[in-house]
Each structure stands twice: as C-alpha cells, then as structure tokens.
Amino acid sequence: MTNTYSGQCACKAVRITAKGDPVAELHCQCTHCQLRSGTGHSSFIVFAGEDAVTTSGEVRSWSVIADSGNEKHHTFCPRCGTPIHVTSPANPGITAISAVLLDKADRFAPTFVAYASRGLPWDTLDPTLTRFDKAAAG
C-alpha cells in the first residue's frame, strides 16, 4: 500500500497530497528558510518523483538564489500566505513540503538539520539531530 500524506494551508484554500515514502525529513536554517517562516528555520518533508506531490487550489511563487547558489522556488497560498512547498530546477522531481501543513503533523520525524551554520542562538532544535553546515550530502 502506498503511503499518502495530505494537508492544507491555514485558510483551507490550498490542499496538498504526496504519495510514497519521504526521501528526507529535516529542519533547514538557511537564510531564506528563516525569512519564509518568520522564525529560525523551516521544517520539510521531502518527496521524489515528478508526480509524487499534487496541489489543488491557487498557489503563487517567488524565486531566489539559495545559500547553495541554486535557484529555488517557494510556493504559498495567496489568500493566507501559508508556505506550501519548495522546488529547485537543480533538483528536478524533488519537492519539499512544509511539514506544518500535514493533516497528521505528528508523522513528521526530522532526522537532520541543514545549514546549521546559519542557525540563530535562540532557535534551539533537537540536539540529537545530525547537523550539516550546508545542505545535506546526497
């Protein structure tokens, strides 16, 4: 049986569904993840496959050059502003969903922190998680 993850934005105008097993579950402390979340990090559950993640409802996006030097696209709900997911042309078929969107958010089980070198002293995360100074290897 295929695992299915689903969720929605704060105003319920956007729904997201992911099928399959996540390839990663993480916190990211890069500059843009701090800014997009309004706090010290963003939390993601990552899926691989061109059709692994689908959304319904209108989303908008903004693009930046990430700390890695790669372009990345952040999508959000235009009604409530909730961040939906992040993609990058450098990693086609990979979609990082904002973990807080999940209907069953307790399914989120992060295993590492990316860009820990950019972490802010007041943003304390589980000290037992593996930390990478930049993006995770692989």
TrEMBL record:
GO terms for molecular function: carbon-sulfur lyase activity; metal ion binding. Keywords: Lyase, Metal-binding, Zinc. Residues 5-123 form the CENP-V/GFA domain. SUPFAM superfamilies: Mss4-like. The keyword Coiled coil does not apply. Pfam families: GFA. The keyword Nucleotide-binding does not apply. Belongs to the Gfa family. This is CENP-V/GFA domain-containing protein. It comes from Amorphus orientalis. The lineage of its organism: Bacteria, Pseudomonadati, Pseudomonadota, Alphaproteobacteria, Hyphomicrobiales.
